[in-house]
Amino acid sequence: MKYLRFLGNEFLLGALIAILSALTAISGYQSSLAGGEQNNAEIKGMQSLNDGNAEYLTENQNISQDYNYYDNWYLNETDHPDVAEYYKANFSQQLQDAIARNPEKVWDDQYYTEMAATSTDLFNKSEAYFKLGSDWNERGDLLGLVVMIMALGVAFAAWASLLKEESSLRIVFSIFAIAMLIYGLVTYLGVPAVAVAV
Questions:
Q1: What whole-number distance in Å separates Cα of residue 142 and Cα of residue 52?
Q2: In whole angstroms, what is the distance from residue 13 CA to residue 92 CA?
Q3: CA–CA gap between residue 167 and residue 174 (Å, rounded)
Q4: Domain limits at 92?
Q5: pLDDT tens digit string along 31-45?
Q6: Is 198 part of any domain?
Q7: What is d(CA 10, CA 83) in angstroms, rounded to the nearest whole number?
Q8: Using one digit for the tens of pLDDT, what is the confidence trace for 80-114?
Q9: pTM for the model
Q10: Distances in Å between the alpha carbon of 191 and those of 30, 86, 96, 145?
């Protein structure tokens, strides 16, 4: 056990306390930043989702309006061409394009896709923001774990420094502090980076 006495050295314990404290502070700060980014992404996700829902309702109203205009145009095309022309002039651009593509199959998938383009884009954005928020949450959680590991290391090093130099427990606590430093560093290096582009 004498060859392990250097683990109880005051300089080593002081260095451990300083390094572990600095890494605890850095990890805590980064965890706090990750929490802020998570919150920001989730707010943007909710905003995009709400906007998408509003656009979806508007798009459905526009489709219903197209149905009405088309039906009235079709019913008046032969007997009342002037009335039919009024309804035709109010067709959405997407309905006009669908008729140009195939007058026999006006309500094709492309028509509905084009009519729902804005809400679909907003829903996709919302999903991307929520995924980004989840990624920041994962990063924040892992950094929180690093904070806990490093704080335990600080506690072990601090307790070791309070014990007498001859104490075997001082060496044990010093070993635990070193183990926490290594475990904390390995965990910290495994924290994933987050791609911020949405």
A1: 32
A2: 76
A3: 11
A4: 2-189
A5: 999 999 999 999 999
A6: no
A7: 97
A8: 999 999 999 999 999 999 999 998 898 999 999 99
A9: 0.79
A10: 11, 63, 53, 10
